[in-house]
Amino acid sequence: MIRNPRSETGAPATLDSGSQGSQAENLRFSGSPNVRNDDHTRHWAHHLAARRLFASIGSVAYDGAAATARWGGIFGGAAGSGPPLVFEVSNGGLDGQFDDGKLEPQDLGPRRAGDHFERLGGLIVGVVWNMFNFLRMGTTGLTAQSLGARDPDEVRAWLLRAGLLALAIGALLIAVQAPILWASLVLIDPSPEVRPLTEAYFSIAIWGSPMALLNFAMLGWFFGIQNTRAALATQIFMNGVNIVLDLWFVLGLGWGVPGVAWATVISQTSAIAVGLMLAGRDLRRLGGRWHPSLAFDLGRLARMLRVNGDILIRSLCLQAAFIIVTAIGARMGNVVLAANAILMNFQMFMAFALDGFANAAEALVGEALGAGDRGRFRQAVKATSRWALGFSVCFSVFYFAAGGVLIDVLTSVEEVRSATRVYLPWVVALPMVSVWSYQLDGIFIGSTWTAEMRNGMAASLIVFAVLLWLLVPGMANHGLWLAFMLFMVTRAVTLAAFYPRLEANIGGAA
User: Fold this and answer.
1) So what's the pLDDT on residue 16?
2) Do the domain assignments include residue 318?
3) Among residues 368, 495, 488, 490, which one has the least CA distance to residue 444?
4) CA-to-CA distance for 251 and 245, rounded, in angstroms?
5) Which of 273, 317, 333, 393 is the most buried (most CB within 10 A)?
6) Is the pLDDT of residue 446 over 70?
7) Residue 179: CB partners within 8 Å, gap ≥ 6?
8) Of 169-178, 332-341, 404-413, where does the model show the most confidence?
9) How many Å apart are CA 65 and CA 74, to the nearest integer?
């Protein structure tokens, strides 16, 4: 059983029976919210606000790929005239990283119940929502292709289709919230002190599912039309509202756990309000008209469902690989597990950055494919890949030079610091290995060649399992990291094998 949320990114923890009573008193939920405004509560509220602030800072715009395209004189229209292509860091991902990245001595031993309630409830809700992140990726590629084909009616229709699908899935999650919570609690098996707090958070936050998933769809549409400023604005606004409401509801009104959950729901809803306003401006700029019959065209709906289904399977395979890494590391002991968690934070920070260039590839590649311009397609691939490769080298150099300092910042446990330094070279090398799989993912998503991406990921997961069986028994944790690195290589190789056929399938002169 996974007994607490840190088991995925940090060392296992148990509860300190001596502190459970006071913590439960400070953060209790018994029909009506009640929290005492003591030092712990203020510290907790400030911690939540800091996490939201870090998430907002993490959502930054970077126009390198667009600038490269403009300098090369190869793009016109939206790509060459204004909105920067995005270096977009996932809010949910950064939120989780700043939450779990710091490892202190007590993380290898007792922890108090209240320290986990919001993390655990947020973990469950976040995992459920992120299963449907295909609404973002699939919408980007489909919208970008319609933009390239100069079909504003279809650009509008993709926003409507994705939005309706998001709302339908969100409503379904609300309807089945009871079995979702039950299964999650059975899997995680929280302590009696943490369980009611987790239930309190989940039972409120899950009502934000329609808006959270609609946010995914809207972000994908903004990326598809290359208006990343709008995407950035909605995310910063959402986190800003969340910060204010966290502090107000917890410190001002004393709502405790329900207050944090309501802040999440309200901030998601407010982001949609801002997003719809910005989308309205884009729709007027793009032109076209609403055609309900076009939006509900069965052929196009089937295409959207196929693309999203392929991306879902791909994402589940990827998550399975990360879970396997955590599970195998846990069998090697708490110190190795903690060391791997710290190094995986390095990998995740790098992945969020490189995913930004993959997002740029999705938009530019999709537009070129929609226009049927093979030369433009090649230039989009080259422009985004150059920037991604350059940043991957920077990450490797930075980790080589400052990795030891970062490790010391992330943990004060000397045993964990020493173990983490032993395995640091793997993370130094990983950026220049991983970059190709991220870029190819973006290219294939933008091209909506998702079946090939799905199949490549499934094959890579099988290869990964075989590599673990061969390498871990003799090399222990070094074998685990080697297998993980080869998993990234396999992901790139499987997609690279399909790439020539993808490029050849695009019309226009080379």
Assistant:
1) 31
2) yes
3) 495
4) 10
5) 317
6) yes
7) none
8) 169-178
9) 12
7 lies in some domain: no
How many residues are present in the chain?
Answer: 510
Q: Would you tell me how many other CB atoms lie within 10 Å of the CB of residue 209?
A: 24
Per-residue HEC secondary structure of 53-79 comes to: HHHHHHCEECCHHHHHHHHHCCCCHHH
CA of 388: how far to CAs of 87, 277, 311, 313, 401, in Å? 10, 32, 22, 25, 20
Q: Which domain holds residue 368?
A: 32-504
Summary mean pLDDT of the chain: 77
Tens-place pLDDT, residues 200-224: 888 898 999 999 999 999 999 998 8
Whether residue 27 is contained in a domain is answered as: no
Q: Of 443, 450, 485, give the one whose Cα is nearest residue 464.
A: 485
Residue 479: other Cβ atoms inside 10 A: 18
φ and ψ of 62, to 5 deg: -135, 125
391-407 in b/e form (b: 16+ CB < 10 A) is bbeebbeebeeebeebb
Query: How distant is the alpha carbon of residue 376 from its chain centre?
Result: 29
Those residues whose C-beta lies under 8 Å from the C-beta of residue 468, and which sit 6 or more positions away, are 324, 328, 479, 480, 483
Asked if residue 169 belongs to a domain, the reply is yes
pTM of the model: 0.76
Give the percent of the chain with pLDDT over 70. Answer: 74
What is the Cα–Cα distance from 232 to 228, expressed in whole angstroms?
Answer: 6
Count of domains observed in the chain:
1
* CA pair distance 111, 193, nearest whole angstrom: 12
Confidence label for 188 from pLDDT (cuts 50, 70 and 90) = low
253 in Cβ contact with 263 (< 8 Å)? no
Reported as a single tens digit per residue, the pLDDT across 254-271 is 787 788 888 889 999 999
